[in-house]
Write a structure and sequence with these properties.
With 255 residues, this protein is of the alpha/beta class. It is built from 12 helices and 5 strands. 60% of the residues lie in helices and 9% in strands. Strands 2-1-3-4-5 form a 5-stranded parallel beta sheet, with helices on both faces. α10 links the parallel β4 and β5. α8 packs across α9. The chain is globular, with a radius of gyration of 20 Å. The relative contact order is 0.09. The chain binds cobalamin (B12). Cobalamin (B12) binds next to α5, α6, α7, β3 and β4.
Length: 255
């Protein structure tokens, strides 16, 4: 539906690049007025409204994925553009991030609810020097909802912290997130640290985050790249199948 929330429509005036405006409008096209209201509440940093409207949507039996994509993530896309173009600054982004978390708090129990047997263990973290965690947290919610046990190392995670957690939890899959071009190389450094520790063959490594690409993932020696939380789940499933078929030291010794 076209944008019916007038204040959200007014926000479109901040988007100067025509292709981005078309993209942002297409995000709102797939939602309805309630989703637009959630997006606007997030853009304006009103965590109380995001909290109430998200709850209202779930009470009205909206799918949590719809609320996430058409409400919260669509709103965050506008914030990303305004931040890049110096229309808003770190404090405003933090306030919108807090509003995003207010909405995610309602979605998390549903997206993380899983009655199925654990299908694998994943360690996830944002790399060293990087404090962005919204996307990583979404991936974790979806992974848990699919039946993965996920150990969340939080943000600013150093290579040896990843190694220790993978060892401690016997994780078959490691997921790293980076949102800054300056911290992306820390993914490669972490992979290097796994190699130096003689651990690389025991864990499959997936990477993601807005600036990361398939090509970058391949260049630094990751096993997979996912562009969103759905791709993250598919990747974790594929990689944990590979990990469960990987020869262990014991079976190697028997052959
Ligand atoms: C919110 C935000 C912040 C918040 C973070 C709050 C938080 N708790 O996360 C705050 C205000 C703290 C912040 C700070 C900074 N930020 Co900032 N931030 C953003 C913003 C607006 C949104 C990021 C976000 O949450 N997106 C929504 C989520 C859902 O998307 P996502 O993270 O990409 O995750 C999805 C996928 O990428 C994927 N995914 C993510 N991780 C993984 C992992 C795996 C394994 C897989 C498979 C998939 C996957 O799935 C996710 C779900 O679909 C972006 C703009 C943007 N468009 O990305 C800038 C942005 C990332 N920030 C930027 C900058 C510059 C900074 C600062 C340096 C600003 C400053 N001057 O201080 C600091 C750095 C702080 C630090 N050391 O990390 C730049 C980076 C530019 C660059 N080229 O590196 C951006 C792109 C803004 C811009 N256009 O200039 N930021």
């Amino acid at each position: 539906m076209p944008i019916v929330n007038q204040r959200l429509e007014d926000e479109m005036a901040h988007i100067s690049r025509p292709e981005e405006l078309t993209h942002i409008r297409s995000l709102f096209d797939s939602g309805d007025e309630l989703m637009q209201n959630i997006a606007y509440a997030l853009i304006s940093g009103n965590d109380r409204d995001v909290d109430e409207l998200t709850k209202q949507a779930l009470d009205q039996h909206y799918e949590p994925n719809i609320v996430l994509d058409d409400g919260l993530i669509a709103g965050m896309a506008v914030i990303g553009i305004k931040f890049r173009d110096n229309i808003i600054f770190v404090p405003e982004v933090l306030i919108s991030a807090r509003a995003m978390k207010a909405g995610m708090a309602h979605l998390e129990p549903i997206l993380s609810e899983s009655g199925v047997e654990p299908i694998g263990t994943v360690v996830m973290g944002t790399v060293k020097g990087d404090l962005h965690d919204i996307g990583k947290n979404l991936c974790i919610m979806m992974l848990r909802g699919t039946g993965f046990v996920v150990h969340d190392l939080g943000v600013d995670t150093k290579p040896d912290e990843f190694i220790d957690a993978v060892t401690e939890h016997g994780a078959g899959v490691l997921g790293m997130s980076a949102l800054l071009t300056t911290t992306m190389p820390n993914m490669g450094r972490t992979i290097q640290a796994f190699e130096e520790a003689g651990m690389r063959e025991f864990v499959s490594i997936m990477v993601g985050g807005a600036p990361v690409t398939q090509e970058f993932a391949e260049d630094m020696g990751a096993d997979g790249y996912g562009q969103d939380a759905i791709a993250c789940v598919d990747l974790a499933k594929t990689l944990s199948r590979i990990a469960s078929h990987a020869p262990t030291n014991e079976s190697d010794a028997q052959n």
